[in-house]
Amino acid sequence: MSDYVIPAPQVHEIPVAGGGTFPVRRVYCIGRNYAAHAIEMGHDPNREPPFFFQKNPNNLDPSGEFPYPPHSSDVHHEAEMYVALKSGGTNIAVDDALDHVFGYGLSLDMTRRDLQGQMKKMGRPWEIGKAFERSAPCGPIHKASEVGHLDQGPITLTVNGETRQEGDLNQMIWKVPEMISYLSDYFELAAGDVILSGTPSGVGPVNQGDVMVLAVDKLGSLTVNVT
Ligand code: MN
User: Fold this and answer.
1) Among the ranges given (26-30, 32-36, 118-122, 150-154), the one the predictor scored with the smallest mean pLDDT
2) Which of 30, 104, 125, 193 has the fewest Cβ atoms within 10 angstroms?
3) Cα of 29 from ligand 1 centre, angstroms
4) What is the whole-number distance in angstroms between the Cα of residue 1 and the centre of ligand 1?
5) Model-level pTM?
6) How far from 148 is each of 99, 103, 120, CA to CA, in Å?
7) Distance (Å, rounded) from C-alpha 147 to C-alpha 165?
8) What's the CA-to-centroid distance between 198 and ligand 1, angstroms?
9) What is the largest CA-CA distance in the chain?
């Protein structure tokens, strides 16, 4: 029993499909990671190094509700698949990266776009636009041992039944093993880390009362009400 002088923060957890919960340690998000159009063949020779930002572990919210946050009038949806790690380390080779994946799930990188834009203009950090309370609605983790490793298949988001985002996981500029390897060169990854893998084109604003439905075949669908 530790001699804490204040109440200890709780470990944040998200559900696992089929039972159990996953304790979250860190949340990394990759910036622009989908080419605007389908990649017909080969890789993009012009790709720039990836960049990452972080959300807080307890920003992940499996409740199915997204309370419209204060201090913004332009809150955008970004439909993303997330990757949950069961182990980590540093300098992980691309070829070994998938060994560290526990599973995959659906998530939304909700963004106060107006505030993010102001921060970009001033060269300041993005947290105020990205890492606010409940900013990452998510579905349960589907174990890789059951659904396999996801590197292709449609990812779609509708708002009130209208398609807003449509892409394919195979359009990611930086693939999941590359993201894990790259991150592990700069940070020590560990069990409990979650990586949001970027969003296809079509991001846009939501309003209170909207219903977002995100889907990836093997991960089912995630319905989130904006309240
Ligand atoms: Mn994003």
Assistant:
1) 32-36
2) 125
3) 6
4) 39
5) 0.95
6) 12, 8, 37
7) 23
8) 5
9) 59
76-89 burial, b if ≥16 CB within 10 A, otherwise e?
bbbbbbbbbbbebe
Domains in the chain: ranges and CATH: 13-226 (3.90.850.10)
For residue 177, how far is its CA from the centre of ligand 1 (angstroms)? 18
Distance CA(151)–CA(97), nearest Å, equals 13
19 CA distance to ligand 1 centroid (A)?
A: 28
What's residue 32's pLDDT?
Answer: 85
Centre of ligand 1 to C-alpha 40, Å, is 23
pLDDT digits (tens, 9 = 90+) for 17-35: 999 999 999 999 998 899 7
Gap from CA of 61 to ligand 1 centroid (Å):
16
* Distant-in-sequence, close-in-space partners of 57: CB < 8 Å, separation ≥ 6: 12, 24, 25, 26, 27, 194
Query: The tokens of 65 are what?
Result: 């509700």
